Structure formats: C-alpha cells, structure tokens
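SAMPLE LOG
Freezer: B-3
Tube label: C17
Construct: single chain, 222 aa
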Amino acid sequence: MKYYPVFLDINTRKCLVIGGGAVGTRKVLSLLECGAMVTVVSPVATENLQVLASQGVIILKKRTYRPSDMEGKFLVFGATDNEVLNRQINQNAEQSNTLCNIADRPEVCNFILPATVKRDDLVIAISTSGKSPAFAKQLRKQLELQFGPEYAAFLKLMGGIRSLLLKEKHAPEEHKPIFNRIIESNIIDLIRAGKKEEIDTLLRDILGDGFKVDDLMELDHG
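STRUCTURE (predicted):
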C-alpha cells in the first residue's frame, strides 16, 4: 500500500466521530483544534465530551450509530472496540465516498494518521505506511528534540516578513533570495538564545532599516 501524503483543510467542515471514549475524545480535540464542526455519536461519552456538548462546541448524540449519521460529513472517525460496527462504518463511508479512519484498524481505513511533531505552524508528519506505528512514534520523539519552540517563533517571524514584503510592488520571485538569506543565516540559533538585538541587526543587514523582530512577529496573521 502506497499512501498519498496530504494536509487537509477541515476548517468549518462537518466531521463525525463514532465512539465517545478516550480515543474518540482525542479525535474530537484534534478536529476542533483545526476548526472542524464535530458531531459525536455514542451511547456513552467522556465527561470532556459532555462538557463540550453542553457548551455548544460539539453536537453529541447519545445513541448507537446509524448510517444516516454519515450524510453530509467530510471526514469520519470510528473509535469503537466493536469490530462489526467498525466494518459497517467503513462500508458506509466507502458507499458515500467519505474519508474514513478506524482507530488502529488500517485495513478498514481509506486514510491513516501519521505521527506528528507540532510547533504551532510547523507540522512534521511521520508515517511508516502502517508497517510500524511504534517506529513512527520513536522517530517523532527524536524530531521533537531536534525541533524545539524556536522553530515556531521562526515561522511566525517569517510570516511577518512575508506579509510585509508582499505589500511591495515586486514579483514574488524577487523575494526568494531574501528568504533564502534569512533561512541560511544563524537566525534560529539567535531565536533559541533570545538574542533580539542580534536578530534585529541581522534583519537590518538583509532587509534594510525599519525591520525589528517584535514588530514583524505582530504582522503574522496566519
């Protein structure tokens, strides 16, 4: 099996989680983090899910799954320990051409989730194509040590620089040498060490006067 790597935009998209236990709760939280509109179907639900439902953050249907629950959903997660139900969920998803993941059951999924390292806007995905999730987790731990919070700050800074440069009447290609100079500098080491004055000096050398790290960080709006 060769999987096609992709990052999905699920902001405001309707997603379904079947199963209200610990695994289902984790799926729900990760979906909410990306702006999804989440419905949970499960006879039982964790306290966390019940609180989210009472706050109107998610829709919680405390009953067993029905095929009609999948109507209009962009993404579906099966998070139950019922093998018959899991296969029914998969079958319904295939019939409706819906993206479907069954927790820990790659054979009945049309996509699998990678292990991830997240530093705000920096997201590194690791997959062994289902061959060894344990090895993917080990690689994730190694990368977490290699890529610390300074990389999140660096991307926020680069977002501010990009936002400012795009306001200039230049072709985007003209900015590539500037970005490359910044990337190839020691700016990440300076961010890690918290040396703002040295960062400002570096930015002035590359970008000219008027570029300060604190101001640029405020310009990044995602």
